[in-house]
Structures are given as structure tokens and as C-alpha cells.
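Write out the bound-state structure for iron/sulfur cluster.
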Amino acid sequence: MEYKAYNIKTFKKIPQVEKFLSKKDIADIELAGLVFPFKVNNYVVDHLIDWKHYKDDPIFRLVFPHKKMLKRKHYKLLKESLEDKEKLKKAIYQIRMELNPHPADQKSNIPEINGKRLEGSQHKYKETILFFPKQGQTCHAYCSFCFRWPQFTGISELKFAMKEVDLLIEYIKAHPTITDLIFTGGDPLIMSTKLIKSYVEPILEAKIPHLQNIRFGTKTLTFWPYRFTKDHDAKELLELFKKIVDYGYHLAFMAHFNHPREFKTSQAQEAIARIQETGAIIRTQAPLLRHINDSAEVWASMWKDQVKLGMVPYYMFVARDTGAQHYFGVPLVRAWEIYRDAISQVSGLARTVRGPSMSASPGKIAISGVTEVSGKKVFVLTMLQAKNPSLVDVPFFARFNKKAQWISDLKPAFGKKFIFEE
Ligand SMILES: *Cc1c(COP(=O)(O)O)cnc(C)c1O
Ligand code: SF4
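---
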């Protein structure tokens, strides 16, 4: 399968874009694409987007930037700056910085070993270390809501990357609480099998007794399923997965799915089956996004289909406080209603999913419900993950606020501080 990628300069050559989009649509994509990352490939274009109804198409909205993702003042600023190259560059940088490109303290969890910083890692929860292989800091297509977008837009001061797997091994060895190693990105499976091997094999050889689970965070199953079937090094990749399992590790794919349409294709289903044959387990996660999947029907259908295909629904996330949150964001109360409505429609096998959850600096904060306590309407919150493990699963309350979209919009219902602030 020939791989064709398109970016903001070349997307006009996509046959479907030529055929279906108006000049105005194209101009708006070009403008929004100055700020938001944009990349799409021929598989997404040919198999996932219903071009006849592109305006409301969830996958079109997922990958193509558009005008409404820009706030009015930013739209205006860009328009005014178009004629002047230097001014435009400044405007783009300024807008990106105003969009909170590095939310939730990502820079503060960088681990150290023997005085050396593991720049390409994050150790936020005691069991789990994240590793960002340098060459995996890109994706097959870019989700325009993505909080990792600073990594793609070349703001190098914000880039996490790391070459040396040796340091990583040294660090894991020195931290017996670590059971899980997550390869993430971008998308680590964008790398060639040879490169992935160069990261994974030394870890297998190191035989670290407390390391149990190796995970890959990826969108490749639905953005380029040929990675596991037809690509020239697909077979070798599957063999590597098998090897990880044979070494006694639990191999988990944290697969990112936004919409049930993504795994309806025969290509995606074949990829899923090939991965499962290696003994790996696929767990699924996704953010709840307005214009893309903000309905209980979409989530219920997604979880049902995932279970049927042998996958395990894992997390529902709240759209983060970054990028075009004003466009994709959903009020917390609405997120909870969608979660509840969806989970009540599926069998117990799909009720493994947790959320809706906000990945914030203190940890993952889930909205467990809305209720009344002492005559006061409140959100009930719990932490699914916390930097401080003693806070996990302890309910706490925030004053009800029907517009709130993120933890920063909430105030404690009783007392002055949330439990994670004490
Ligand atoms: C969610 C998350 C993880 C993985 O945690 P699990 O709950 O074990 O899947 C790791 N790092 C960060 C920063 C996370 O948000
Ligand atoms: S696949 Fe994941 S990392 Fe890549 S752009 Fe989408 S959300 Fe971001």
C-alpha cells in the first residue's frame, strides 16, 4: 500500500478536496492550519471520511483544521498579519502560546538518574513511566485537538525527546515501584520496526524483574492499519510483539479511537486481529469532543463494537485545557451525562471504561456524578490516578457549575481547597 501524506501546503491536491470543497472552505483550512497542526494520509482520506457530507463528518472534523477552531480575535489577528511575513510569524507564535500548548505541568515530571535528566521520559505515577522515543514524535495524521501539538509544530523548547534507552533502563532498575513502561509520542508505531526494536530489545534483554507491562500508546490502528498488515516491515513488527509476550510481559496497546466508524473498515479489523494473535491486549481510550463524539449513542456503539472485537474499553477523557478547547470542549456536566447514558446501555463487559476524566497536574480527576450534599448542588469527583496515591478513589466535592469544562473552572464545595491542594 503506497503511503501518501498531505500537509497544509499540499492538501489541495487531494482528489476529494478538489471535488467537494469550496474555495472558501479551502481558504479557511489554510488560515486555521497556520496555527493548528495538519497532516492527513491517503488511508484516512479514502476510507474514513464521508466526503459527500464532509461538513459534519466526524473524521473530517477530527483531522482538518477549520475556522471555528480559531477564536474571533485570533482569526482577526491572522487576517491582519497575512501580508507581512514577520508579523504573521509573530502572530502564529503568540496565538499558539495563548492556547496553552503545554498543559498540566508536563515538564515537571522529568525523571533523573545519577545526575542525568531523562529528557524523553515522564514519571508521574509511581507504577508507570512514559517514554517518548525521539523518532516517534509525530503521527500518521494529526488530530486537530491534540495537546501534543507543540511537538509537531516545531516549538523545540517544548519538545520531549530522548535517544538513550540505556539511561531509561538504569532508571527503571533503580525504581522498583515501576511495573509499567509506556511508549508514547506522538505515535511510537510511526517508527520503523528496526527502530522500535532498537528501543524494545535492550529492555527485554535487561530482564528487569519488577517491570511487568509494556504498553504502546497509538492511533495507528485506525490511521494506518497497514502498519500491521501490508507494510514491508509489518511481519517483523508482529514478531516483535510476539517476542515481548514470550518474554513474559503483558503487552498492551492503548489504542486511541474517536468514533465507531474508525474500526468498521476491514483494514482496521484485520490489524486488530493480527495484533491480538500475538497475545497482546488492546485497550481503548478517547477524549470526548464536541462535533465529533458528543453523544451517548456514539460512545455506547463504540464500546459495544470494541468488546465484540475483543478490545477492552479503558478511559473516556475530557478535552484538555489546550488548543481549540472552546471548539471541542464539552461542559463537565454534559460529559458525565453522556458517560452515564452510554454506560447504562452496554453490558458489564464494556463497563471497564472509566471517566469522564481530566488529566490534570495532580492526576486523573473523574466526574463521578452530580448530587446534593447539605442542600448544596455539587459535583462528586474522584481521582483515578494521583501523584499522591493516598488520594485515589476518595470522593470530594466541587460547587456545581453548569458551564465548567475543566478542573480550573471548579471551586471546592466545602472548605477552601480541593484534597489535592492540601
Ligand atoms: C493516564 C496516564 C498514564 C497511564 O496511567 P494508567 O491509569 O495506568 O493507564 C500515565 N501517564 C500519564 C501522564 C497519564 O495521564
Ligand atoms: S494520534 Fe494522538 S498524538 Fe497523534 S495527533 Fe492524534 S491525539 Fe495527538
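---
The pocket of iron/sulfur cluster (ligand 2) is lined by residues 139, 142-143, 146, 148, 185-187, 219, 256 (CB under 6 Å).
The chain has three domains: 5-98, 102-279, 288-422.
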